[in-house]
Amino acid sequence: MHNSPGSGRNPRARLALGVATLALVAPLTVSGVAAADTSASTGTVAQWTTRTVAPGVEVRTGTIKNPAAAPGWTVTVQAETKARFTGAQAWAAVGTESWASQTADRLRTAGFEPVATRIPWPGYSDTPRGLMGVRVRIGSYPTQDAARSVASQVTAAGFRNVVEWAGYDADQPADVENINVTVIDPHRFRGTVEATHDGNVAQRETTSSVAAKLGSLVGVNGGFFLTSDADGVQGTMAGIGAYDGELTSMAVGSRAALILEDGGRRTRIADLTTTVTARAGHAEHAVEGVNRTPGLLRNCGRPGAIPTAEPRHDTTCTTTDELVKFTDDYVHALPTGPGVQVVLNSKDRVVSVGDRTGTVAPGQTVLQGIGPAASWLTAHAKVGAKISVTEDIRDDHGRKVRLGKDDSIVSAAPTLVEDGRIRIDAATEGVVDPLDLSFGFAWANNRQPRTMAGIDRQGRLLLVTVDGRLSGGSEGFTLAEGAAFMRSLGAVDALNLDGGGSSTTVVNGTLVNRPSDATGERPVGDTIQVLPRTR
């Protein structure tokens, strides 16, 4: 199912992005020369510079400003709800019409002047149309401290609330957006483009650090990864990842992925699923994970997971029965605890069977089982016996994805553009939940820093970052705005990569955007690197 471009989106937001379309479709090919466009209808100004980093690689850096936009700080009253899977008390940015009416009446009685605004569903391909909910706010203030002062009074009156910057709202234009667009033409570029975890899938490293080691022309951050020890080992990917032709993490259900074949000379975007199977003689067992802690599934998306087998962003599901494979790219202490561990040599022969401990030696593979999966290992893994592990990667058309040594995959969510049309499958890929508005609202529907990848009709790869959270004054994109922007660049397919404080663009070893974390550039899981020709 496809939407017409921009359907369901706020018309003012479309106008705010329109100038970006004009600026980038124009031939900005002269290195170091600025190009500016002004929209008479909106007063929006876009200023762009373009530099050629290598033949076939251009980096376009721009700022879009709307002097007419006048966001401020405000106080948003939150609606009480229940988290869908746990039933725990939760809070949403919007509520029902009856909640909004009653809340507004109570606020007026308490001496406040609330404003209720109807918030429609964005033009996602798999969520309801029409009203999402009603937002209730109080005031617009020039400073965050002024809004906090009012918020404390609202709290004292018995209302749960948060202080927010109205410039993050999709229902009004952004005043500043700082954007970097890298365009790689595989017909002219003689280097390679690859996703990389820099040799260790169990570490976090900044994009600029990886770029410096590899001598890359351009680097951007890649997919979703673990950031807390409570969810497993930090840096391991929360979605499919493949580097140098080897699958190093499994898919989260069926989620969008960027496939870089033959060193990026052929690229495509597709929803991918993974099936991994261990076989011992005539017996077989599903492998539910690769290079992750057994029992912990970040972003869920696997059969038997609790509370859901569907993809669920930034959620850690659990299971008590699974088999996990570890490759020698997992340069970290192996997970410990109850269960069984089997070590295989390079010929898939069992070297040892025992407790879960130690590390993966070069050239070896480790299988860890918990629950019934541990019993399967105990029954079938005998020293000297063979256990083979097969991997099957399929796209959403059922076609097999075969990995060669120069192929890599990076994944996140959701799909933004498909076959030239905006198609954001936000619910299917688990980044919003129509039945639980306490989940994913700000991540998807508010402006955030974003990293996105797209492919245009000429086969050119587009790597895009937009700063957000007021880094350099920039507010970011909503998912819908990100999709519209990618389509404005000519992308026929596009997906959302990891964003927030991870969003990073590095050119010739220099950080050229402004990541939003207060501590500076964030160490990430994997990255996408544009590498010069080596010979």
TrEMBL record:
Q: Which residues form the SPOR domain?
A: 92-162
Would you indicate the residue range of the signal peptide? 1-36
Annotated GO molecular function terms are:
peptidoglycan binding
State the Pfam families in the record.
Answer: NAGPA, SPOR
Keywords, comma-separated and alphabetical: Signal
Q: Which domain of life is it from?
A: Bacteria
Q: Does the keyword Signal apply?
A: yes
Q: Which residues form the Phosphodiester glycosidase domain?
A: 341-530
Q: Which InterPro entries match?
A: NAGPA, SPOR-like_dom, SPOR-like_sf
Q: What is this protein called?
A: Sporulation protein
The source organism is Planotetraspora mira
